[in-house]
Amino acid sequence: MKSLGLAAFAVLAATSFAQEEPGAAPDAILARARRALAAGDSAEGIRELGVLLALHKGSEADLERAAELAPEARYLRAAARVESKAQREAIPDLEALARDHAGSPWAARGRLLEARARLDLGEPGKAAEILVGALEARTSPEELRALAGRFVGLAREAALGDAKAGRAADAARALELYGHAATILAPLGPDAAVQEGIGDAYEALGRWDEARGAWAALEEAHPESPGLPGAMYHRARALVQLGQGPAARELFRRVATDHPAGEYAPQALLDLGASHAGQATGEKDVHRAVAVWEELVRTYPRHALAADALFRAGSALAGVGRHEDATLRWSALLDAYPDDERAPDALFLSGESKLALARFAEARETW
Questions:
Q1: What are phi and psi of 214, to 5 degrees?
Q2: Which segments in the chain show pLDDT lower than 50?
Q3: Angle at 113 between CA 112 and CA 118, to 5 degrees
Q4: How far from chain centre, in Å, is Cα 300?
Q5: First-residue to last-residue Cα distance in the chain
Q6: By CB neighbour count within 10 A (0-12 exposed, 13-18 middle, 19+ buried), where does 289 fall?
Q7: Helix pair 343-356, 305-319: axis angle to 10 deg
Q8: Angle, to 10 degrees, between the axis of helix 60-83 and the axis of helix 42-53?
Q9: In this predicted model, what pLDDT tens digit does every residue of 15-40 receive, in sequence order?
Q10: Do 237 and 203 contact (CB within 8 A), yes or no?
Q11: In this structure, are residues 79 and 69 in contact, taking their beta carbons and an 8 Å threshold?
Q12: CA spacing 20 to 30 A to 320: which of 43, 112, 179, 257?
């Protein structure tokens, strides 16, 4: 037995708009079409609907009734074609529905169906135009979210690309699609997932000021969202790229302090230390960086970034001639994380620092 599809569902909902009147020929034709569609026989349903829409002979009452039923017939025929994967064939009915029957409830449904069809046909721009117009037709929040979800899915595919299919990541395309989703959802307020996607796309494109704005908008609109620490972290990264180090460091610290159990806290500490080291004008700034990196190691000793933090601490200290302190960090890394990918480099640099300290025998032994 065939399952009920889009057209069959429309048939079940049809009683909301028109009651069947078996006594009149047009109603009898429509009734046969409904039964065929409900039974999963799209071809027969489409044929019967074509008969109804082509009706031009009969009594004046029958012709008037056929005209009254035309919006429903066009919608049902289009829905059946969409369900049958014949989206292109459905478009003329949907366009006629919008043009000739704009005041009908079926026209509003038809606009949403056309948007779905356009998405299936790979025409998201046209789908978005339709949906923006449909916002004025009091489309339900559920329908808006469902349709916006289609754009979000396409955006994520564009952002990730597909190596097997030879399709590279396309951040510009992802940004366009996320923008369409945001427009569709505008009456419901900013959507956290869409806003995150917009921020990610701006970052991938190196448009840091716009990325900063996107993350700030997410923080403002969703202060209780689970994604808040991530938004704060990404905004801090954007501020670093924009040369606003103090503001970035303040945000990195807030992420680590206010959300210590979150996934972004260790990375925020690593980047906070890097920001101190990056603007270092002397040992004071280097020691600030080292203190932050050692905080990361103490707080998250099992985290994958702990070894990286020790490596950076050793490198920073060696860079300002503090070789004794540097060797302590190299040794700590080798003792705690001997299998880390940084371990061989730490071993070599430890020997370099010992050499700088004129501890030649130890340097040879280390190497």
A1: -65, -45
A2: 1-4, 8-9, 11-23
A3: 95
A4: 30
A5: 75
A6: buried
A7: 20
A8: 150
A9: 444 444 444 589 999 999 999 999 99
A10: yes
A11: no
A12: 257
